Amino acid sequence: MINIVLPVDFGEKTDQLIDGAVKFAKQVNGKINLIHVAPTDIGFAIGDMGYQYFPEVEENEIREELVQLNKLQQRILAHDVDCEHLLKQGIAKDIILEYAKLKNADFIVMGSHGRSGIYDVFVGSLTKGLTKSSPIPVLVVPIHN
Fold first, then answer.
1. Which segment, 9-13, 54-58, 101-105, is predicted with the most confidence on average?
2. What are the distances in angstroms from CA 136 to CA 14, 45, 73, 103, 133?
């Protein structure tokens, strides 16, 4: 069985990415390993008293993201594609590569949001970063507006 790591961010194009990954998984008899990387600063806020940490905000956000991951997993399983998921906090590129190695991934499937140029200069691109540094092949699914 082919192991596919599929990072998701719950953005508006996640459904298109899932559809592309499911199609690919069916073609290669693959298993999808969903991963969502949450930022480490979810519960922090800046106020009059400087930085403050609110653990309940972080806990609620993580709980909601797990619910979303479970829904995506069920959607993939409904297409008769084996699937599991993981939620971690940290630096997305590093966590995704660690997970891909842990799962002996054959592919990492990422979405291309059609951004380029100035966007990459100022914001960066996770997909672009992974394609440059990953020892595992990265399949880029075109995502259209």
1. 101-105
2. 22, 37, 23, 11, 9
In whole angstroms, what is the distance from residue 140 CA to residue 109 CA? 6
Question: What phi-psi label fits residue 50: left (phi over 0), alpha (psi between -120 and 50 degrees) or beta?
Answer: left
Sheet holding 107-112, edge to edge: 83-89, 30-38, 2-7, 107-112, 138-142
pTM, whole model, 2 decimals?
Answer: 0.83
The alpha helices in the chain, defined as continuous H runs, are 14-28, 55-77, 92-102, 118-122, 126-133
Domain ranges of the chain: 2-38+64-142
Annotation: CATH topology of 2-38+64-142: Rossmann fold (3.40.50)
